[in-house]
Amino acid sequence: MSQTIDYSTCRTEAFSYNKGTIIFDKANRSITVYPAEGNFRGFYSCIPSSNFERDAAPAELKIQTLYYEYEADANGKKWMIIEFNPNDEYGSYFAPATGY
Question: pTM for the complete prediction?
Answer without folding.
Answer: 0.69
